[in-house]
Amino acid sequence: MSLIKYACLLATVFLLACEKEVTSIKLPAASSQLVIHSFISPQDTMLNVYVTESKPVTGDRPGSVSTPVADAAVTLSDGERTISLPVTSIFTGSRGDVYRVRAEAFPVVAGRTYFLEVSTPDGRRASAQCTVPEARVTPEFLMDSAVRNDYGQEYVKYTGRIRWLDYPGETNFYRTDGEIWFVRPAGRGELVEERFRLNYDFRANHFFSDSRLDGALLTSPEFSFNITENINSATVYAYLLTTDRSYFEYHRTLRAGENDNPFAEPVLIYSNVEGGQGVFAAFNRTTLIRKVK
């Protein structure tokens, strides 16, 4: 046997001899965290705070990525008044889905700063704060229509945009959204009302910052919807949300994380919660209404 072959054989035997199952590695302990999600607005009818508990990456705890927390103490304050939000089960059989209170019991006012605190019986605490922005812009609603005929079915196709002039001299954040409400026959002479979100291009960005666009004219992505003969009436509600930075950053990072590329870098989701994770943010909504039928 040559010297080279002998050396290779010894190396192989040595590597095989060193192979053994490692069972003594201790992974760092991981603990769950409180996760808070809440968005407040002067246009709210209900103030909602969602509280869940994150699931550690390591450990024996089964379940989903997060678990609802039903025994927390949740308070909301504006620095002068404080209100407690009781837990409410929205779905039958759930152990607590959301902490909520009617907005009339604690009105949200533009320009004020609000403080959210969450604590649990085991001593965990999480808190966050946000300031409700002023709605200082006046948007306009641009809409066009055209009669179409597909497969013998005639309908009117509507397209539209929201346009507004950014308020100059300060940093502003916006979001555009909207709904269309249809009323149509349901049979036996009855009418039914249906609500749908406006059909925006899902690839388009609906969140805006006036960074490098201070005082500029801004325009939303185009939306579209169809009206057929069997629709009794249709009304469009287009929304321009003036948001705070936390609302914008949370949704920006959330959108950036929605990537189908398996080789893309992971995105850290924005959080402004101390002692936990999540977001507590605010917006102020301006609504444009257009009856189209």
Q: Low-confidence parts, pLDDT < 50 over ≥5 residues?
A: 13-19, 59-64
Shape: globular
Proportion in β-strands: over 45%
In whole angstroms, how far apart are the ends? 94 Å
Number of strand elements: 19
Work out the count of structural domains.
2
Number of helices: 2
H-E order: HEEEEEEEEEEEEEEEEEEHE
CATH architecture of the largest domain: Sandwich
Helix content: under 10%
Main sheet: strands, sense, barrel: 10 strands, mixed
CATH topology of the largest domain: Immunoglobulin-like
Describe this structure in words.
With 293 residues, the protein is mainly beta. The chain has 2 domains: 34-131, Immunoglobulin-like; 140-245 and 283-291, Immunoglobulin-like, CATH 2.60.40. 10% of the residues lie in helices and 46% in strands. It is built from 2 helices and 19 strands. The strands form 3 sheets. Strands 1, 2, 3, 6, 7, 12, 13, 15, 18 and 19 form a 10-stranded mixed beta sheet that branches. Strands 10, 11, 14, 16 and 17 form a 5-stranded antiparallel beta sheet that branches. The protein has a 4-stranded antiparallel beta sheet with strand order 5-4-8-9, with no helix packed on it. The longest helix is centred in the first third of the chain and has 16 residues, at 3-18. Mean pLDDT is 85; it is low at 13-19 and 59-64.
